[in-house]
Amino acid sequence: MNQNLIVNRQILLASRPVGAPTPSNFNFTETVIPKPQQGEVLLRTVYLSLDPYMRGRMSDAESYAEPVAIGEAMVGGCVCRVEQSLNSDFEQGDWVVAFAGWQDYSLSDGSQLIKLSPEMANPSYALGILGMPGLTAYMGLLDIGQPKAGDTVVVAAATGAVGSLVGQIAKLTGCKVIGIAGGTDKCLYACETLGFDACIDHYQDDFAQQLAASCEQGIDVYFENVGGKVFDAVMPLLNPAARVPVCGLISQYNATHLPEGPDRLSALMALLLIKRIKMQGFIVFDDYGHRYGEFFSAMQQWLAQGRLIYKEDKVEGLANAVPAFIGLLQGENFGKLVVRVGPDHLA
Amino acid sequence: MNQNLIVNRQILLASRPVGAPTPSNFNFTETVIPKPQQGEVLLRTVYLSLDPYMRGRMSDAESYAEPVAIGEAMVGGCVCRVEQSLNSDFEQGDWVVAFAGWQDYSLSDGSQLIKLSPEMANPSYALGILGMPGLTAYMGLLDIGQPKAGDTVVVAAATGAVGSLVGQIAKLTGCKVIGIAGGTDKCLYACETLGFDACIDHYQDDFAQQLAASCEQGIDVYFENVGGKVFDAVMPLLNPAARVPVCGLISQYNATHLPEGPDRLSALMALLLIKRIKMQGFIVFDDYGHRYGEFFSAMQQWLAQGRLIYKEDKVEGLANAVPAFIGLLQGENFGKLVVRVGPDHLA
């Protein structure tokens, strides 16, 4: 069944995954379309963003945000249209960004909505290059990474929503950019289309050696999205005074236990000490939400000037959100993953 | 034999320690007093500073500085007097800070010397509160730690040269300060003399529980000097957006291998990510040498106002440098460790 005017399709969290999520962790249901009260708007989801952080919300381990409760709709950023408005700030037909979740319809009091220009050519870009992943790349690289012209910047998940922008912004800053990605196609794309200086395939047996050979001058900024064996290969190459923004650790999200020893925690701390390295985690809206305007105008200008390439991996239909999300955690997407949940206009 | 005008007593690195240094790693010798060339000064060591970083210089593992070569004099910061000057910038009798090493006499071309005021009441303070350890405490806490009034600051090695200043500066900033030290006497001193809000004895079996109980509001700044089980107890208490200046890891300096697993490297990175924590190593003169003047005037003023307490652990005689240094790595010193190598005036 496609999106319609009669029911609200939802994907609920059915159970907490142990290791990689499976389809049985999700429950596809239909419910009534909610009715807005005075001051509220009824939103219809057009695009749903799928992002690695959602794996964390499926678990009840301590994290920076509350987990999704069992039986509740999965959370997520969406581009929506206002279908009905009882709020004077919004009109029917407005395009907005909302944290509306994996469902067709939701209510909002308007306080957390970002209104989009009706002229926006690609409203789904508000979930990527001009939204949370874009802000993540921009602030993580520029504010924490502090790249200088001539620095060597290494970025993992190099063709992903965040990594592809990190690398391109680093190139605009005058850096040498080495990507890390999974597979030949992604590596070719990073070099030929995104303009990275090199991109190393982490599936290759001699990945660590290839990375070292590409970073003859060491690494000044490592933008961490992945962790695991990718970080292991990066560690010995970090230069004195290197900066490591810790944005994500996708290789670890499905892990059920820590790896075997020895325990390298103290080795990492000794590396930070000896090489005067800064390693800093960040949660983009908590740390940088107040600088969204600065980011938006810079990115929009680069985009308009054709200085940034942006690739979406668009999946059709809410039902495909589940396999697409499971694949995202395995690196199967190519570009920013968004789900087309409904049409621009629903007759 | 005491310091004299005839020979240059030296303590050389005889062999590289495996684990904790022993007296056999050092070699006490006598050699001729070097003669200055034009442009040089002959320095006589009055005080020698003993500091944990020296353990690193005894090893040939990769670090931020070259190791001491076997058969060469151990390196170290000293307060010296100019005994003979062929450099127009210095006069006989001048007090200077020099990286003169574990020996009575050394030469300098003047370029790395810091001249001290002849009125300085305690020239040895230039090796502690007004020197490298003071600058380390000041910049590590204020520039990397960024404490705000009301924050909870935890400092390990709380009565040491650096830790005692970190805690006192944090108190001057309006923070709640919890020290960690080895033994009842040090903990009493931290609370009663230095004015810390609490100090936990890491020799107690329930150390981690006591630390947690003292940090009801979590930890906003942890000044890392120690590592090991002290950091293990700190980790779960770190607040979102906490800052961890990594200044030293004294508990690890004598380690010969990594601890047993599991491998918690990824757990530390996940903690940084989830809690948006900044962890940053620094090497004080590389990172902050250019801000020495700013530090010196602030510290001198606090000291003159009686707002900072400073305790030295003074050892008499160059020959005692070896046991004192071995003890330093076991936490046996109480206050800043300095060796009185020679008298103010050598007749």
TrEMBL record, chains A, B:
Q: Which UniProt keywords apply?
A: Oxidoreductase
Decide whether keyword Oxidoreductase is in the record. Answer: yes
Keyword Oxidoreductase present in the record's keywords: the answer is yes
| GO molecular function terms attached to this record | oxidoreductase activity, acting on the CH-CH group of donors, NAD or NADP as acceptor
Give all residue intervals belonging to the Enoyl reductase (ER) domain: 21-339
The record's section on InterPro entries has: ADH-like_C, ADH_N_2, ER, GroES-like_sf, MDR_fam, NAD(P)-bd_dom_sf
- Gene3D superfamilies in the record: Medium-chain alcohol dehydrogenases, catalytic domain, NAD(P)-binding Rossmann-like Domain
Superkingdom, taxonomy of origin: Bacteria
What Pfam families does the entry give? ADH_N_2, ADH_zinc_N
Q: What is this protein called?
A: NADP-dependent oxidoreductase
Q: Which organism is it from?
A: Motilimonas pumila
